[in-house]
Predict the 3D structure of the following.
Amino acid sequence: MDPTLRDRIHSMLGAAVASSIPAAGGFSPATRERLVLADGRRAFVKAATDEATAGWLRDEWRVYGALQAPFLPRVMAWEPESATLLLEDLGEAERAPPWTDAAVDAVLRGLDAVAAADPPAAVPALDSRAFSGWASIEADPEPFRRLTVCTDRWLKGALPVLVEAEAKAPLAGDSLLHLDVRGDNLFLRGGSAIFVDWNWARVGNAALDRAFWAPSLALDGGPSPEQVVGHAPELAAAVAGFFAHQSGLPVADATPAIRTFQFAQLQIALPWACRALDLPPSLAAGGCFGGVGRAK
Ligand SMILES: Nc1ncnc2c1ncn2[C@@H]1O[C@H](COP(=O)(O)OP(=O)(O)OP(=O)(O)O)[C@@H](O)[C@H]1O
Ligand SMILES: [Mg+2]
């Protein structure tokens, strides 16, 4: 660990760092390590490594600084200047996958609790233009076409339907949203879910957290999107549009692995949107983009 960070943690927590191990998972270049302190306590540090990660950590603080709830790790210390966050170490809690029924239920109950919390004043409302991936693809289809997940003929027929459906997606609401719910951003303890990584938090329609979780859940061997979201054609279109658009973009401020993961989620979300909107599979003749993630 960087000696400056080590000293900073010492002064923030009043005990030296005895040992540290990097946390698994995640895509941002922020420092993320599990710590054992000289006085025997444990902690988790997430610290900025550049301006982008500092901004994301300050965004996370909008939630951690305002809320204490069973679905959040306990905050041990925060230093705004360096954007250094010290949290309760959750490293001994359970993880998913495997997505057992109990684990899925714990997350659904956890998301209900998130939606029932008073959103902190500093958390912004969801921008109604946030999920307009298909409209962006309509304006510039090349990055999406290069993904070769559909024929040009399919795109010509399906795009107007997808653009229209995504524009009708119910985004507005007054619930706190995490907006990055997936296995590597949550822990399970005592039958309850604890969510980390809050930099995307917004205020909007609670159904969005389930909808954006659904592709990674199915990808990890969990239930299908229909089983956790129900029949939601407009949300399915918005989610698929997000991953369709993002998967084609260049990578900035993160590891390229994020695109691989978004593309994998597209392989669930696009068939889901096709099923929900009665569109044909995007690749005919046994192509995977119609056969993956079918409702069980
Ligand atoms: N309080 C905690 N205790 C133990 N491990 C944690 C804790 N918070 C996060 N982690 C681990 O660290 C990983 C990275 O942390 P986090 O998800 O907050 O940041 P990130 O990866 O930088 O963000 P992103 O997922 O958007 O790329 C998590 O996937 C998880 O495995
Ligand atoms: Mg993360």
Observations:
- DSSP finds ten helices and nine strands in the chain.
- The radius of gyration is 20 Å.
- Residues 26, 184-185, 197 surround magnesium ion (ligand 2) (CB under 6 Å).
